[in-house]
Amino acid sequence: MIRLLSPVLLPLLIFVPAACLFAGEWQVGKGKLMTRWAADVTPENVHPEYPRPQLVRSEWLNLNGLWQYAILPTSKTGMPDSFEGEILVPFPAESALSGVMREVGPENRLWYRRTFSIPEDWAGRKIQLNFGAVDWQATVWVNDRKVGEHRGGYDPFSFDITSALQGTGPQQITVAVWDPTDAGTQARGKQIRKPQSIWYTPVTGIWQTVWLEPVPETAIEQVKIVPDAKHGKAQMTVSASTAGSPEAKVTLVSRSLGDKNEPIDVIVGNGKVDTPITLEIPDARLWTPEAPWLYHYEVQLEGGDKATGYFGLRDVALGKDASGNQRLLLNGKPLFHYGPLDQGWWPDGLYTAPTDEALLYDLLVTKEMGFNMVRKHVKVEPATWYAHCDRLGLLVWQDMPNGDLHIRPEEADIERSAQSRNQYEAEWSAIIDALHNAPSIVMWVPFNEGWGQFDTKRIVEWTRELDPTRLVDNASGWSDRDCGDVLDIHAYPGPAMPPLEKDRAVVLGEYGGLGLPVEGHTWTDKNNWGYRGYKTEEELNTAYHALLEKLRPLIDSGLAAGVYTQTTDVETEVNGLMTYDRAVNKFDVPRAAAAHARLYDPPSRLVTVMPTSTKGNQQQWRYTKSRPGEDWFAVDFDDSDWKTGAGGFGSASSPAAIVGTEWTEPDIWLRRSLLIRGDPPKEGYWRIHHDEDAEVYVNGKLVQTFAGYTQSATLVPLSAEAIEALKGGRNEVAVHCRQTDGGQYIDLGILETAGQ
C-alpha cells in the first residue's frame, strides 16, 4: 500500500473567531467510516478559514460551530417551541460530523438557531449575513424577523440584516431548511433517499460556512474579471450595492507562483462601477498547469469599502493541431486534459470536507499523480476548493448538479415544467456567476448522461452567453445534441473515442472505474462494486496501465481529453484512486505520474489506411447474414451473391454506433478490398468498434481476434500477423462478428503511425 503524508496547511487568513455556543453534551456521531481529519474537528475549530478567497474583507465573524437544531414535520406551522439538541455547522444533518446523523426527509423541515453579538467597532455599518451553501430551501430570520429566503443547494447567498438587529446585546438567527432530495425536481446531484449503487446518502441543511461582515452603505458586491492572456490584459468590472455610480480603484500589487509571492510595479486602474476597467500588465506571466501564476489586487470603492482578491491570466479556446484535429487550447497551445472524476464526498462529512486541509489533500494527490485536470462531478465545491485548484494549477471541468427526470441515450430531451426549468436556470446562472473568476475552470458541463437533460441547444447557447470565455460540453456522455464545443462519450472500462468532427473536439468524459475494495477502509463490508473488479493492488495497477497504453493512440488520432473514474471510493463504489477515508492510495504514484506525463507529449501523426464509417462518409462493404462457405475469407472467394451495404453494421441502440446497415441477427460476415499505394504499414492500429466477438482476416490469413465488446471505436495495435499479411497493392479484408445479447455493432479501419 502506498500512503501519502498529509500536506502542510496553507496560511490562514486573519479573521474574528466566533464564540463557541452551547458546548456541552455534543459529540461526533459514530459513522461507518471516518477520515483522519475528523479528529481535528471541534466546535471551537471548524472550518476557520476565510470562505471567499477572491473577494476578501479583513473583518468578519465566523458563525460555524454549535447551533441548536430541531427536525419537525413540514405540516407544523411557526417556529419550534423547543430544540432537540446541537448540530455542528457546517456539516449536513445526515453526516457523522454534524453530531446528528439523522435523515431529515422531504416530509420534515430542519430548524437551526444560535445567538451572536456584533463587535463594538462594527457600529455604524451595515451587517451582511453570508451563507456558502444550504441544501435546499432556506428561510432566515434574525430576532424573529424574516430577512430572506433562498432556493438552491450549491450557490452562495447573502442578506442585509442591519434593520433586524436589536441594540448591542445578543442577537438571534433562526434558519429553516426544507430539502425534497429526489422527491423534487431541483438540482440534487447524487443524493437519493434510498442510497444504492452510484447514488448516495441525502444531504440536508447548511453545508458550507456561515459568516457575518460589516460593510459601508455603498459596498462592493462583486469584481468580475475577464482575462486576455494573448495581450497581457485583464478587464475588471466592479459592481456595488448602490443606485449611483461611485468611482472604483483597482490596484495590482503582486504576483505569486505557489507559495512564492513577488512584488510587481504597481498597476492602477480607475473607473465607475459597472464599467470595465482594463489593466495592462507588462511582462505578463500566464496561468498554466505547469506554472499557475496568480495576480493579486486590491479594490477600493468611493465611500470606503475595500477588499482584496486574485486572478490568473489564461485564455481557453478550440483550435486545430498540425493534423487538422480539433484540440483544447490553453493560451493558444493544444493541451491534452487528463484527470479524475472528482465527486467530493466524504464518509464523515458527506458534502462537507472535515477540514480545509482534507479538502486540499485530494487535490495534492491528484497533482502528485501527474493529472492536470479534475472534472467536478454533479456537485459544486466551496470557493476555497477552486482557490486551491487555481494555486496548484489544476484545470477544472465544472458540472451542473443534476435534477428532475433522466433519459436513456436514445431518448429525446425531457419536457420540464416551468417551475423546474426556471429553478434550473436560476441555479446554473448563479453557479456560473459565483465561480466566474476562477482561472482553473475551463469547461462548463450543463448535463451529464441525460440526467435532467432538456432544451440542450438552448441551454448550451445560454451558458455561452453567460460566460463566453470558457468552453461548453453540451452533455457528458450519452445524449449528444450536436452542439457545444466537444463531443463527449463515456466508455467503461474503455478507453474509447467517438468519430472525429470538423468543428468540435472529441473527449472521453468518463472511463475506467477499476475497482478494488481495501479491507477496513470500505463503507460496507460487502456489496461493494466497480466497473471491473480486482483483488490486489498489483492487479489493479497492471489493469490501469493497460488502459493507458490504449489511451495514448487515441490521443494520437485526435482524442482531446480523458476523465478517469474516480478520485476516491464513494460509499459502495470502490473504484477510487484512494479509499473513501483517504487512508490508502491504491496506485503506485511515481509509476502513474510517469505514465501520465507521456499523455501530454505531442501526438504522433496517424494516417488513415482504411477508413471507418463516419457521419456522411460511410464505407461500403460486401456482407451476408447467412453462414457462407468455409473459405469465405479467402482472397479468391466468390462473394458476388453477397449484398453491398454501408458501414457500420448493427442496431441504432448500440452506444456510439454509426449505423449504415441494420444488423440484428446473431452473425454477420463482411468483406472489402483495400488498395495500399506504396509500402504497407510497419506500425499502426486497428480502429475497431465491436459488439461482440470479432475475428479479422487479411489476404486469407486470420490476423487478429477481438473478444467481448467495446462501447465505441477503440485503437488496438496491429498484430505482427496483420503487419506481415498487409502488402502494397490490393488487399482483401474479411471480418466475422457474432452477437449473443444486448447491443450489436461492427466497423473497423486501419491507421498507420507516421511520426509526430
Describe this structure in words.
With 756 residues, the protein is mainly beta. The chain folds into 4 domains: 36-215, Galactose-binding domain-like (Jelly Rolls, Sandwich), CATH 2.60.120; 220-304, Immunoglobulins (Immunoglobulin-like, Sandwich), CATH 2.60.40; 316-601, Glycosidases (TIM Barrel, Alpha-Beta Barrel); 607-753, Galactose-binding domain-like (Jelly Rolls, Sandwich), CATH 2.60.120. The chain has an 8-stranded parallel sheet with strand order 27-26-25-24-23-32-29-28, with helices on one face. A hairpin with a 4-residue loop joins β13 and β14. α1 runs parallel beside α2 (383-392) and α5 runs parallel beside α6.
Helix percent band: 10-25%
CATH architecture of the largest domain: Alpha-Beta Barrel
Q: Which regions contain 5 or more consecutive residues with pLDDT less than 50?
A: 1-23
CATH class of the largest domain: Alpha Beta
Superfamily (CATH H level) name of the largest domain: Glycosidases
How large, in whole angstroms, is the Cα Rg? 28 Å
Ends apart, CA distance between termini = 38 Å
Number of domains: 4
Number of strands: 44
Percent of residues in β-strands: 25-35%
Determine the structural class based on helices, strands and strand pairing.
mainly beta
Provide mean pLDDT, rounded.
94
